[in-house]
Specification:
The complex is a heterodimer.
Chain A lengths: L1 H16 L9 H23 L5 H24 L4 H29 L1
Helix pairs in contact in A: 2-3, 2-4
Chain B lengths: L1 H80 L1 H17 L4 E11 L18 H13 L4 E4 L2 E2 L6 E4 L2 E4 L2 E3 L3 E6 L2 H9 L4 H7 L3 E12 L20
Antiparallel strand pairs in B: 1-7, 1-8, 2-3, 2-7, 4-5, 5-6
The chains are: A mainly alpha, B alpha+beta.
């Protein structure tokens, strides 16, 4: 658990240290991909708790989801439809679902 | 347990990338917003420049007036010395009068044209109830054809190269911006000018049809300002050839 937190902090520091910026045109893509990644991480944590974690599933999930999300946004921009709202809704719903699973898991553990 | 440890490192790696991405995005968004603020600052800067430029215009106009009085004094001086330059001076004065570079006075009419005051409900399209540049041009054209010798629009004297055109929601006469109400003053035979404007089916009748407020008053003496801009001929030059 500690190693995860350290890694997260390192990530923040690295981003601050590098003089790197996302161009404004790609801002939407980056935001949605971040949400997709958060969803994947939550999913991974959930499967860790239920001892069903599979790195292959996780990797394909995080890349597959991100790419699909980006394609959806691109398509949405081409046909003048704000598809990223739909993508966001789906991912946030999944995040909440995963969170509720994790919550229940710990509640059950506590009541035991 | 070994497997679990591996998994933890794996998740840590992903967390690293995720946090990196989130921070990067946050940085970018903050930077984009600050760009908006600098644009605001630029606007302020330009505003100050505009104020300075306007002040300069006022100063230069004052200087121009001073210099014009000086020139007049020199002319007066030169004319009083010998008769030849006296003739030249009167010729010059005539030319200036025709060109519109002197103040003039005489009988004439004052035409006031203002946007319709009809309420919005009665108006079908707001566009047809405001005064357009073409309306002004029609009135000016009518005045000239009725023998007007000098015309001003909102105090801006019309000369040979003057233009009346619409830019945005204002009308630019010469290079001065004008807005409703438009006061057109013309020197000429007052009765002729008035009847030319008020002729049935004429320009003012059309404007009244659109509920535009029009008012024509005759005066026995009105004074018109001179043209205040500069005229620079760059391309045209005097030709001695006889055109057949």
């Amino acid at each position: 658990m500690v190693i995860i937190i350290i890694a997260a902090l390192l990530g923040v520091c690295a981003a601050i240290a590098f003089d790197l910026y996302i161009p404004p045109a790609l801002s939407t893509y980056a935001a949605v991909i971040i949400i997709a990644a958060v969803d994947s991480v939550m999913g991974a944590y959930k499967s860790l708790l239920s001892d069903k974690f599979n790195p292959a599933v996780f990797i394909t999930g995080i890349f597959g989801n991100s790419i699909l999300a980006a394609v959806m946004i691109f398509l949405g921009k081409k046909i003048d439809l704000d598809l990223y709202y739909a993508v966001l809704v789906v991912f946030t719903m999944r995040i909440f679902n995963n969170f509720s699973f994790i919550r229940r898991y710990y509640l059950r553990k506590l009541s035991k | 347990m070994v497997f679990k440890r591996k998994v933890h490192i794996f998740v840590a790696l992903i967390c690293f990338v995720l946090c990196f991405a989130v921070t990067l995005q946050y940085k970018s968004v903050t930077k984009n917003k600050s760009v908006g603020i600098t644009q605001l600052r630029r606007t302020e800067e330009l505003e100050n420049q505009l104020i300075n430029a306007n002040q300069q215009i006022i100063d230069l106009k004052k200087e121009n007036m001073q210099l014009t009085t000086d020139i007049d004094a020199y002319r007066q001086d030169a004319a009083s010395k010998d008769s030849g330059s006296g003739a030249l001076k009167s010729e010059l004065e005539k030319a200036l009068l025709i060109a519109g570079f002197t103040k003039v006075k005489g009988p004439g009419v004052t035409v006031t044209i203002a946007d319709s005051t009809e309420t919005e409900k009665q108006v079908q399209t707001a566009d047809s109830y405001i005064v357009h540049d073409s309306d002004l041009r029609n009135v000016i054209n009518e005045l000239y054809s009725a023998g007007a010798e000098a015309v001003t629009v909102n105090g801006e004297r019309l000369i040979g190269g003057s233009s009346v055109r619409c830019v945005g929601n204002t009308i630019i006469v010469n290079s001065k911006r004008c807005s409703s109400p438009f006061v057109i003053k013309a020197i000429g035979d007052a009765d002729t000018l008035e009847s030319a404007l008020n002729i049935r089916g004429g320009v003012l009748d059309v404007l009244k049809l659109y509920k535009i407020n029009v008012n024509v008053t005759k005066s026995s003496e009105i004074e018109l300002d001179k043209y205040n801009g500069a005229v620079n001929f760059i391309h045209a030059e005097k030709s001695e050839k006889q055109v057949k």
